Amino acid sequence: MSRFFSARHASLVPYTPGEQPQIPITAKLNTNESPYPPSEGVARAITGEIGKLQLYNDPECTALRKAAAKYYGVAPDELLAVNGSDDALLFAFIAFGDRDRPMAFPDLTYGFYSVYADFLHIPAHVIPLREDFSIDPEDYMGLGENVVFANPNAPTGRALAPGEIGRIAASNPDRVVIVDEAYVDFGWESCVPLTREYDNLLVVQTFSKSRSMAGARLGFAIGNRELIRDMNTVKYSTDPYNVNRMTQAAGIAAFAENDY
Ligand SMILES: *Cc1c(COP(=O)(O)O)cnc(C)c1O
């Protein structure tokens, strides 16, 4: 730490990204990347942007959000495109957490939640998993705190039914319940439809895993338009051009080739 480093961050322990070895590897499991490249349509879409790199990207991601809205079955203002889902999680922690609005999450879960909580001085309420590594939904009922977990959870692979998550949202109506669906495409039911029922439910998805696009950095946050508006306030106060031109085009192509 240099003598210039803000005292506010003095005790910060940063997240350690999974190792990216500089030698060719066929199947890389430590960060759950796909061994397969994205579709040819995605590659073409990226190439098509090269001649336009002198121009700023659309900060609203208009065309991408339109494609995403169609896929997720929500309105374009009920979702936000982000620079990987970590970006959405950061925006949500900034928007909805503070000293008086703790974040509750399980031990174990995705390691970044505790880092963001520390960084932003949001009290973390860590709740142990059950003996069998599952989350007990009863532990989260009526907490009066924000809640965040991955579903299916990481690294346990155990999932809660959307109905149980709906009950958690209903019992914490004055706080936000964030569901990180990084692995949902591999075989679980998404909570996206429930975001229309619960105005405090925010679902985060990523193109890093199931869409083979980890290096492109693309994710989405889906929720009530008021929640999305708050996240946009944070985005436009920090990083309005967070989803670059090539990634926007790649995302549209990936939605168009969903079967791939
Ligand atoms: C990989 C992963 C993320 C981060 O995804 P990016 O979109 O690449 O930022 C978030 N949450 C969980 C549970 C993950 O496994």
Strand order of the largest sheet: 1-7-6-5-4-2-3
For the record, what is the CATH homologous superfamily label? Type I PLP-dependent aspartate aminotransferase-like (Major domain)
Ions, cofactors, ligands: which are bound? pyridoxal-5'-phosphate
Total strand segments: 7
CATH class: Alpha Beta
Low-confidence stretches: none
What's the multimeric state?
single chain
Explain what this protein looks like in three dimensions:
This protein has a single domain (49-256), classed as Type I PLP-dependent aspartate aminotransferase-like (Major domain) (Aspartate Aminotransferase, domain 2, 3-Layer(aba) Sandwich). Helix content is 29%, strand content 13%. The chain has seven helices and seven strands, in the order H-H-E-H-E-H-E-E-H-E-E-E-H-H. It has helices spanning 40-47, 62-72, 85-96, 112-119, 162-171, 225-238, 245-256, and strands at residues 79-82, 103-107, 124-128, 146-150, 177-180, 201-206, 219-222. Strands 1-7-6-5-4-2-3 form a seven-stranded mixed β-sheet, with helices on both faces. The longest helix has 14 residues, at 225-238. It is globular. The chain starts with 39 loop residues before the first helix and ends with a helix. Bound molecules: pyridoxal-5'-phosphate. Pyridoxal-5'-phosphate is lined by residues 84-86, 110, 150, 154, 180, 182, 206, 208, 214, 219.
